Amino acid sequence: MSTVILSCESLEVYVAAAQKMAGTTYPVIWLEQKYHEEPAVMRSHILETIASLPKEVDTVLVAMGFCGGSWDSVIADRRIVLPRVDDCISLLLHTDDTYHPNLKQMGHMYMLDADPDKFSPELMFQQSCQRHGTEEARYLFDMWFANYSYLDIVDTGMDDCYSEAFVEMAQRSADLIKCDLDYTVGSNHLLEKMVSGQWDTQFLVAEPGHKIVHKDFFE
Question: Whole-angstrom Cα distance, residue 63 to residue 85?
């Protein structure tokens, strides 16, 4: 019997760090970040990926959250271990053993400290310009981020997010969405617990045949 990790590719650096800390070498299967745009598409990809796993894999450790319903009504023929959080940002905002499905604050947009090139407002704007042109991309950004006042860098200690180069990059993103730049403390605590087998109330341990539903994550 064996274990694999199923992870959103946005958490690649964090998963690697958790395994290094725990001394584990579980194979990792990556889910492309683009699937997050449509939870139904992500759900289909999750089901296909789990169904394709070898029969000897009996446990799947999941490095992501409920993510807009991506795991809603998923039934697997093997054990699934999931952090009980709403998304990957909340996953990295945990710093202790207290269960909380959503640690994000209203009006705050979050950017991870490691590999910001994978997700940042600046990158989003560049991609939107390619698809829609600069003028429409600017209009869309003003609409999408109208309710945000802060861009918070999640400092998990994974990278030097206080370096001049990092701050300059983050400030460009903050300026694009017309937000103040700030920091918030995060950690790799949940992923480290998960790969170490410390599955307490912060985790859903869905045994084979269990139908994963919304209330499994949100009490």
Answer: 11
